[in-house]
Structures are given as structure tokens and as C-alpha cells.
Amino acid sequence: MTNIVNQPLAGKTVKLRRISPKKPAVTMGVVTGSDGCYRFTNLKNGTYKINVSRCNGGGVKTIVIAGGGRANGEDFQCE
Q1: What's the angle, vertex CA 53, arms to CA 61 and CA 36, rounded to 5?
Q2: What is the signed CA dihedral for 34, 37, 40, 41, rounded to 10 degrees?
Q3: What is the 3-state secondary structure (H, E, C) of 12-78?
Q4: Residues 6+ apart with CB under 8 A from 28
Q5: Could you read off the pLDDT of 16-74 as tens digits, one per residue?
Q6: Beta 2-3 vs 77-78: how paired, if at all?
Q7: Contact present, 57 and 78 (Cβ < 8 Å)
């Protein structure tokens, strides 16, 4: 996660919620590291919504995880 001049944003709260399938419910939260990175592990197949609190300029993304795959490059740019 970076600001508008590509500097890492540390200490931002990133929340993840599974939206499909809805059962069993999955909700997780992490805080970005000093390099602005974040990671959610052990996710099952499904569609997830990622939300960054207090992120002007695009604080919500929807991603799909399938077949034990992973999603890379889901970056947010906050003002």
C-alpha cells in the first residue's frame, strides 16, 4: 500500500470478508508492515472483499481466490 507519491504506508488496517460463499463466514484483519505490505493466509476458494480504512482514492477491492491460488498485486493507493 502506498501514498500518492509511492511511499509505503505502514500501520493501515486492512480488512477482508468473504462474500461468496457466505457460509462459513470469514472475516479477518491485518495491519500493513513498515513496507506497506499485507498478507492474508489460509484462504479457501471464494470471493472476498478487501477494505482499507481511511483510504481516500480507492479503499475497497473485490478479489476471487480459486483452486488454492493466490492474489498478488492487490495494491491500494491512499492519499
Answers
A1: 80
A2: -90
A3: CEEEEEEEECCCCCCEEEEECCCCCCCCCCCCCCEEEEEEECCCCCCCEEEEEECCCCCCCCCCCEE
A4: 15, 16, 17, 40
A5: 888 888 888 889 999 989 988 888 888 888 888 888 776 665 567 777 777 666 676 66
A6: parallel
A7: yes
Take residue 27 and report the three cell numbers written for it. 472475516
> Which amino acid would we find at residue 45?
N
How many Å apart are CA 68 and CA 72, to the nearest integer?
13
Q: How many beta carbons lie within 10 A of that of residue 71, not counting itself?
A: 14
